[in-house]
Structure formats: structure tokens, C-alpha cells
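Morning run. Coffee first, then this:
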Amino acid sequence: MNKNELNPDASPEAAYGARLRSLREARGWTQEDLAERTEYSSVHISAVENGRKPPTLRFSRGVDMAFGIAGMPESFERECREIKHGSLLEGFPEYVGYEGRAAEIRVFEVGIIPGLLQTPEYAQALADSAVRRGAITRDQADERVSFLAERQAALVRDRPPMVIAVIDESCIRRSIGSGAVMGGQLARLVEFAALPNTVLHVAPYEIGERRTFDRPVNLLTLPDYSMVSYVESQTQGHLDRENTAVMPLLTAYHQLQAEALSQAESVAMIEQVRKGIP
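And here it is:
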């Protein structure tokens, strides 16, 4: 049977598929042979090799186990993550790299709990909703939740960063998932506020036009005291390390903190909302 000629330069997915075929054939395996060593069909493997289906983390882990390269630099999981990062908003993959080694992290969020503070159940509810709307696939939803867990885990270290979070009141008023999911998320916020390396503020509705940001903002202080900002909209993200761009955001963040509730007042509001959840 004639096989399709692959062009690995066509796209990252094409390069992935071409390498998969090359490694499979180097072992003398047919697509059926590889299928027997994974949870996927030969039809699925053919579709990935020919670029008709994008690789997923789950698929990549399966073929890594089959080839005995799990956890290695040449693993397909690593290549898949690089492809996935390429589909994220511009600047975000680089931002996450900085976030994992930051000394201080400042975040502001509107409408939803910041990712670093989300419980797995809350994150899953958001991802499931995106699947139901057709915005992402089930595999993409699983990858999104897994990626968030990895971001959170990167902050658990011997000298954890100082994390300062200012959240709009809408974050705690907007119900996500079931009552149990939202209740658990609010309990997580209270636990977060009690940690020795965290500060939590709620920016109440009543501050009105004195709320200095209208979109999510992230500010990092790195170990060398340099700063990074990352500002995101629905369709665009922008990373900046220039002081002329970062310092005005830091000033606005400090102004927002001054207008927000104290941590004690914020926790009291969160507990009040929590008690009202059915």
C-alpha cells in the first residue's frame, strides 16, 4: 500500500506526525503494532501521522510509554506541550516560565477566580462549560486543567513566592459549577488568605470608577528584582519587561489595593457569600 509523503515543515503538527512515523518504522512496527501498545486505534495513529488529527497529551504519553521515552527530552509529550503552547495567547507561555521562579506574584482578576487560586473542581467546571459551548474539545479541556495544576505545583517550593491577589467582587458573586464546587472554591480563598506568604483583597462594586483595571493583570517580581507584566484580553495577551510599561501598572495596582477591602474585610465578605450558597 502506498503511503502519503509527509512534509514535516508544513506545521508543528506535521513535524510531530512525521517523527512519529519515522520512529515507528525504525522499530519495524506497523500502525497496528503501535495501536496494540497504546489505547488508540491504528486509524487514529494514521490520522495523527498524516496531520489530520492534532496530538494530545494523553496520546503523547501513550506513545512515549510504547517507545520507552517517557520523561526524556525527546518525548512526544514535550513536543505536544510545545505545540499546545504555540496555540496559547501570545506571551503566555513565556510568562508562565517567569511565574515559576518569581519572588513576588501580583494578580488581578474580574469575573472568575484567578487560575493560581482555583480548586481542581472549579477549573474543571470552567473547562466543561467551554466544551459544552463547542469552544474547545474534551482533550483540550483535560489539558487545560492539567496545565493549571502544573502551574500551581510550580509555586510549591522551599521558598515560595509572595502572592498578592486582588479580585473583583464579581469573582465571588458569580456562581461556577454546583453549590459544592463554589462553596469549596470560596473555602479555598479563605485558606489562601491564611497562608504566611499571601495577601488577598476583594475590590468591592462600590469603588466604581476607582477600580484601576478592567481586564486581568499579572505582575511578577523576579529574584533579580526586575519586573514582568502580562495583560490579557479575550483574544490577545501581552508580555512586557520594560520598566516604562511595567511601572505604571504597578502604580495602578497599588492604587487598587488602597481602594480594596482589607484582608479581614475581604475574608468576611467571602464567608458571607459562602453561607448563602444553597
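The CA atoms of residues 112 and 171 lie 5 Å apart. Good start to the day.
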